[in-house]
């Protein structure tokens, strides 16, 4: 399906539309900023926040129901009785319901991604121009 050469146990993962050879898998991914912007559309906004210009809502196609965002973040004036996680911000509370498994998974994955981004420099790794790879070409290397 991916057009990879059979019998090889390691392949390069690169950023791009098309692989350069049959040892490579090309992926176009979103940046952390793009992920945060997309996830921000899953916030159940406090009344008046979008009409006052504090935030913008996702624009849905006419007649189409809005997609369910993950994680779904609730908001209210008071702290929730039970939640997976909750945070106060500017006189409102924001939380993920404890019984919302899909949102809990997404939030946990986001925490893992942020911890990877945070530890990247401490691991002594540098990013190549085009890809994070283990072998030749633009690569992920340990700095000396």
Explain the overall architecture.
With 144 residues, the protein is α+β, with helices and mostly antiparallel strands. It has two domains: 1-29, no CATH class; 31-126, no CATH class. Helix content is 19%, strand content 19%. It is built from two helices and eight strands. The chain has helices spanning 32-40, 101-119; strands spanning 12-15, 24-27, 74-76, 85-89, 92-96, 125-126, 131-132, 141-142. The strands form three sheets. It has a three-stranded mixed sheet with strand order 2-1-7, with no helix packed on it. A three-stranded antiparallel sheet has the order 3-5-4, with no helix packed on it. Strand 4 (85-89) and strand 5 form a beta hairpin. The protein starts with 11 loop residues before the first strand and ends with a strand. Mean pLDDT is 75; it is low at 127-144.
């Amino acid at each position: 399906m991916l057009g990879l050469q059979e019998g090889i146990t390691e392949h390069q993962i690169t950023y791009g539309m098309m692989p350069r050879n049959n040892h490579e898998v090309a992926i176009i991914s979103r940046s952390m900023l793009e992920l945060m912007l997309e996830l921000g559309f899953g916030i159940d906004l406090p009344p008046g926040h979008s009409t006052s210009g504090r935030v913008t809502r996702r624009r849905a196609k006419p007649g189409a129901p809005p997609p369910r965002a993950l994680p779904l973040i609730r908001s209210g004036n008071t702290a929730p009785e039970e939640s997976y996680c909750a945070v106060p911000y500017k006189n409102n509370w924001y939380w993920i319901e404890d019984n919302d498994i899909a949102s809990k998974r997404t939030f946990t994955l986001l925490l893992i991604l942020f911890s990877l981004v945070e530890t990247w420099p401490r691991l002594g790794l540098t990013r190549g121009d085009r890809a994070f790879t283990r072998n030749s070409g633009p690569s992920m290397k340990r700095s000396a």
